[in-house]
Amino acid sequence: MPSTALDSAPWRATWDEVMTGFVPGLPSLEDVIACAARDPRRILDLGGGPGVFAERLAARWPSAQVTMIDIDPVLLALARDGVPPAVSVLEADLCDALPAGFDLITAVMTVHYLRPERIRALYRRCRQALTLGGLLVIADLMPDDGLPSVMDALNPAPGEAAAELAWAQWWGEVAEAPEFAQLMADRADIFRHRPPANFAGSVSWHVAAARSAGFREAGVVWRDGRHAALVAV
């Protein structure tokens, strides 16, 4: 628990600004998801962070049950303090079994933290967690197959240097805030042996992984620079 009272609103707002700096086209992604998913009754957001995206999903579909999961204690505390009652916040590892019965599963800027074999396993678990005809939406670093190498996708694109700085500054300010002292210590324990993979699989890699997991159809429906969204049915 935070050591002092937590006011999540400013932290969640600046988080949203940082994420938009990395991926300016995120609002258009939400519109694409809305067109593809139509009227989901149950939604699962993977690696939901402070719950900003899950909150938007709940606002778009007020009658839906929205669940978000994450493992980061700092981000979970912000989500639990800030999301509306329509959003359930669960602490869970993406490498563990997922709850089932969802019409829509989303993961925005999440899977690049995982190694390739864990992404493949996650796709299989997502297929098992979806209802018949349900959709999986993965939005992340996903270069075109024409790029010379995957490493090109990891190099910051023009204009992203400011976003990288803002990201580091956000976490620096969190580390200095007394209300996060214990949570930051817990976070260090969790991620000490979990270095981020920084994996940026190509479009064809993600399509093949989704189809290998048993999805009938898979393809890219949205792109914003180095980032793209795969939809699997």
TrEMBL record:
Q: Which UniProt keywords apply?
A: Methyltransferase, Transferase
A GO molecular-function annotation: methyltransferase activity
**UniProt cross-references to InterPro entries, sorted A to Z:** Methyltransf_25, SAM-dependent_MTases_sf
In its keyword annotation, does this UniProt entry include Transferase?
A: yes
State any GO BP term from the record.
Answer: methylation
Quote the Gene3D superfamilies the UniProt record gives: Vaccinia Virus protein VP39 (3.40.50.150)
Q: Which Pfam families match?
A: Methyltransf_25
Cite the Methyltransferase domain residue spans from the record.
43-134
This protein's record includes keyword Plastid = no
* The protein's name in its UniProt record: Class I SAM-dependent methyltransferase
Task: Record the organism.
Answer: Paractinoplanes ovalisporus
Q: What is the lineage of its organism?
A: Bacteria, Bacillati, Actinomycetota, Actinomycetes, Micromonosporales
